[in-house]
Amino acid sequence: AARSEACVARLAAVGAVRARMEEARGTLHEAAGLSELLVNIDAVLASGDATRAAATLAQMRRCIDAVTDVPQFQDARQRLAAHEDRLQEMVAPQLEEAIRAKDAEATKAARAVLESIGRGKFVLDMYVKGRLAPVLAAWQSFSAGGAQSFCEWLPAFSEALLAAVDEDALWAETAMPGLRSALTPRVVCEAMEAVATQFAARVSKAADTAAAAGRPPVEELVALRGRAHALAEALLPRLAGCSAAAIDEVLRAVDSPYVGALEGYAPAEREQLEAEMR
């Protein structure tokens, strides 16, 4: 029995050594492959072939995962990230033009490249940036000294925001399937964030203008808050499929400019205003 146990132990030891040798051989193979990839990646990126570059970088990442303990590759992840940055910079103009031209196939191709290197968020960023441009242009079109008051003009801004959500909803679902529930909240929230400071200032000024004209400021604030409610109601059907948290974030973004307008009032007045503005 003792002899059998010793034999089993020797076989186990031999198996362990063999496994370590196989692991070392695999590491050496991956190290050699990584060395070659690091040498060639600049030329691949310079070729302008984004798909090939993405595949090369994905292969580099797999090799790096296998050689993390090899001293000569300690900075490999930093080098990989730098190459991924270069690829993102290379693809960005193509993606921007594809989104602008509503070229679904080109958008999907650029998205596939970026997602393969873990840069899928960049696609959302570029899309939202493109959709915000007309919204912000509409916002800047308001003239404080114009014939329309801010309250009278505000529906035009709401229409621009809704158009940014609606304009290419079907195209976006074709070009970026599965992202619709992420795109709509971001467009609304980032638009409201971009104009938040000016929006709050315009609301406060509208209330002050009403007071100077002998009208109760609360009436102006109630009318303005009504615009927010109308926008929120128009947005809700467009948020179908979004999470409850995303919907709540959108509604708070729409309402946030009016919250600051109440801060200049005493607590009792603010309570009355809040009750009338609901």
TrEMBL record:
The family database entries (InterPro entries) matched by this protein are listed as: COG7
Its keywords, alphabetically, are: Golgi apparatus, Membrane, Protein transport, Transport
**One example of a Gene Ontology biological process annotation:** intracellular protein transport
Q: Which Pfam families match?
A: COG7
What GO cellular component entries does it have? Golgi membrane; Golgi transport complex
The main location is: Golgi
Question: Superkingdom, according to UniProt?
Answer: Eukaryota
Its record classes its membrane topology as: Peripheral membrane protein
Tell me the compartments it is located in: Golgi apparatus membrane
Q: Hey, which family's this protein in?
A: Belongs to the COG7 family.
- Report what the protein is called: Conserved oligomeric Golgi complex subunit 7
Naturally occurring in which organism (per UniProt): Prasinoderma singulare
